[in-house]
């Protein structure tokens, strides 16, 4: 558990300077929000491990036998992933950063907590299913009235990770496949947005004039997401 916790902390501390490198109030606010959420989640993981060790005498984070420790670990990992109802930070942080930083948050930063979620056994199925359904519904509904691409992709991330967690209950391999497909699609769309500095749907309407083929590809990727 200690090395897993250290890995999550290094992952968090590495992204903070990237988020705050642009000296702008919104970037600073996004970096601060991200740090607070991730630090809180890491503290919960630490608490879960210590609680399990106190009652069982083992430090194995993948075999939690205490119910409170299991629930605490589940909540901590969902906070790190941005699943509902602990999702409020994700759209705000992604909106306050650059497109390249938002790409890292939406893809690479999901891998460490999802890896722990895949490794951890005996997670409570009712809680995971509730989180999955809530995330899917909130992510889908909240993305409908957005015009900024980063917020749309943030809510897309919440919805997709909800589906991934729902699949995780049935099969870990299928959940991993779902996550990889989501990361590939999101990366492709972000690279298109970065290359043409597209931030809103209004900017996307001008993409058709510059490159019809790329605009068509972007449309299909958005439909896939």
UniProtKB/TrEMBL annotation:
Residue ranges annotated for the NADH:quinone oxidoreductase/Mrp antiporter transmembrane domain, each copy included: 2-224
Record's catalysed reaction(s): a ubiquinone + NADH + 5 H(+)(in) = a ubiquinol + NAD(+) + 4 H(+)(out)
Catalytic activity, EC: 7.1.1.2
Organism domain of life: Eukaryota
Pfam family, one: Proton_antipo_M
EC main group: translocase
Membrane topology: Multi-pass membrane protein
Cellular component annotations (GO), alphabetically ordered: mitochondrial inner membrane
Protein name as annotated: NADH-ubiquinone oxidoreductase chain 2
Lineage, uppermost ranks: Eukaryota, Metazoa, Chordata, Craniata, Vertebrata
